[in-house]
Fold:
Amino acid sequence: MSKQVTIIGAGIIGLCSAYYARQKGFDVTVLDRNNESDDNCSSGNAGMIVPSHFIPLAAPGMVGMGLKMMTNPRSPFAFHIPPSIDQMLWSWKFMRSANAAHVKASEHILKDLNLTSRKLYESLTEDIGVGYQFVKKGLVMLCKQQASLDHEAGIAKRANELGVGASVHDLKGLQQLDPAITLDVLGGVHFHDDCHLSPRELLTALVNKLEEDGVHFLYGTGVTGFNQTQESVEVITSDGFGIKSDQVVIAGGVESRDLAKQLGLKLPMMAGKGYSMMVKDPVERPELCYLLNEARVAVTPMQQGVRFGGTMELGEPNHDINRNRISGIVDSIPQFMPKFQPSQFKDLPVWHGWRPCSPDGLPYIGKLKKDMRVVLATGHSMMGLSLGPVTGMLVSEILDNAATTLPIHQLDPNRYA
Structure:
């Protein structure tokens, strides 16, 4: 059996892949182009584990909603104009997937992935400690408008049919769920199985555990190419060195697209930029995590304070901070949680990261057909943290040439080839 594995990417997907591969006895090296102290897309996200997200991003109504939001510079959605050819091709594939048949075909695998990952998080907590506060109190989708509440109630009904616990509440019921937070909403849906944690602390705990178990990390090490021979796959690094291994896992988030292209696979994927801010001394501290439905803003209590995040800016990765969209996030929060006012967000540092978005809303997990020694694990969109452990487990099974715990034919990274 091939035992030497190089994993590209030290975000949650790469770290979980390293964790489960090491458990199976693989010798693992993890590369990341960022320095050890740098943030990655996993560190600043909303920290949510979301079995409630069994509907893919590519769903009916998303195209129309996106087009409407594009006219508002403060809206939660943006699409880079003028679009690149890759953006246009991605959009065409997205529109083809945004239908009821695709949702029906995807809901079981997304539900199974998320519920399995939630269970694995419980085992992970026992193994590496609870420094990242794994909180199992559920997520609440808050709604200001009746149409939104009716829509979410329909999702709650389907969730219960699929075995994902959910209940609909009016404002009084929501306040009983979480007396620590003041709300100004019509009602909402409580998804019982969702959880939240502090992602930065999770990543730190994982790295510490992996280093203790003998995993080798190379930070500040980009990948410039590959040298494929019959004996090995050599990863060529930015410092000119080559790392030979029996198998390679590409788990580099948005960067995975360019790496796959070097290996002969054109992987449809767009960067979905998101922003977040941490209020370290909040006027109120909720006990549950929330999604502000109409505003598309996530609210998560963490060890350092309360994190607020949102937006989906589709395009090529860049470090620009769109202040209009930051204002859109900040101004929407008091409409749902009136104790929080825009002045409390003044001059807060703004984190940003890029979600790797596939056009059908399903991740890419599996072997590269052009070289079966290369495994892809990317394209998780807004569910990267949620699906970290299950992705890592599946990657380890693929590396081990074992039957996967869940069927992954829908996640085939070659599906658009």
User: Anything to note?
Assistant: The CA atoms of residues 197 and 372 lie 35 Å apart. The domain at 4-42+201-266+361-411 is CATH 3.50.50.60 (FAD/NAD(P)-binding domain). The mean pLDDT is 94. The longest helix spans residues 100-128.
